[in-house]
Amino acid sequence: MLSLPFFQVDAFAAKAFEGNQACVMPLDAFLPDETLLAIAAENNVAETAYIVPAGEGIWKLRWFTPAVEVPLCGHATLASAHVLFSQLGFTGETIAFDTVKSGRLLVKRLADDRLEMDFPSAPIRPVPVTDDIAAALGARPVEAWGGMFFAARFETPDDVRALKPDQRALKTLGATSDGWDRGNFGCFALGGDGADATSRFFAPGSGIDEDPATGSWHTMLSRILAENFGKPAARCYQAYPGRGAWVGVKLEGDRCKLTGNAVTVIEGRFTL
Predict the structure, then answer these.
(1) Which residues make Cβ contacts (< 8 Å) with residue 269, sequence separation at least 6?
(2) Of 47, 69, 116, 210, which is the active-site residue?
(3) What is the rounded distance in angstroms from the CA atom of residue 141 to the CA atom of residue 144?
(4) 199-223 per-residue burial string, b: 16 or more CB within 10 A, e: under 16
(5) I want to staple 272 with a disulfide (CB 3.0 to 4.6 A). Which of 2, 150, 166, 187 is the partner?
(6) Any catalytic annotation for residue 56?
(7) Where do the domains of the chain lie?
(8) What is 3-121+259-271's CATH topology?
(9) Residue 77 contacts by C-beta under 8 Å, 6 or more apart in sequence?
(10) How far apart are CA 32 and CA 270, in angstroms?
(11) pTM of the shown model
């Protein structure tokens, strides 16, 4: 019988029941992939992060949804750093995570206790909005971009909040890029109550109909806001029904700084 430490964290959240849920499981070495995926399916939250020590202040990091391993996940990286700082006693200023598809990611603890992540931000390009995409989303966007995901801009935050997409149709559509399948859609509008942009993220292609708080999506949104709307730094709100999440973004060349809070809601053991 194997007993593993287990933490459940609400990431991009100032208190419980906000942001996005992630499970963090520190390991001495990665278990077989099929076991990692089975544990993630059992946890049944958006992402399970596995961290393995790799040197002073350095950990290897992998992320699994209940269905697939993904090449980049922001909220579970934030959750992993939060666990190391808050539960496991790491006293340094910056944590380095080495990942398979996204290289080295850095997470810094700021003076106000927020965490700042340093992530890659991939190029974007304008793309047409086809009739099948508009039908699957249930509304026609004003404009769209391709990159890591399919990004669709709507006229108002209320338009974004009102979306009720056909998830089965959406799963087969959209942009593809290295490591990502179709069926991952970021939908946003400029503005919102205290926000520079309000968004939602639909990810049936990654096994999640709608994600409550998505760091990887915000690396793309930050580039859209900087290159098209003159906002290299922005305060963004992800309007998942019933939760909600605030994400600070700042584009710096080919990197994006993401800032947010996290809280631990469950601590225990996972027994195999």
Answers:
(1) 3, 4, 5, 6
(2) 47
(3) 7
(4) bbbbbbbbbbebbbbbbbbbbbbbb
(5) 2
(6) no
(7) 3-121+259-271, 125-249
(8) Diaminopimelate Epimerase; Chain A, domain 1 (3.10.310)
(9) 49, 61, 63, 97, 105, 107, 117, 119, 215
(10) 16
(11) 0.90
Tens of pLDDT, residue by residue, the chain (272 residues): 899 999 999 999 999 999 999 999 999 999 999 999 999 999 999 899 999 999 999 999 999 999 999 998 999 999 999 999 999 999 999 999 999 989 999 999 998 989 999 999 989 999 999 999 999 999 999 999 999 899 999 999 999 999 999 999 999 997 666 556 789 999 999 999 999 999 999 999 888 899 999 999 999 999 999 999 999 999 999 999 999 999 999 999 999 999 999 999 999 999 99
Structure token digits, residue 210: 């709608």
Q: Which two tokens stand for residue 73?
A: 């996940």
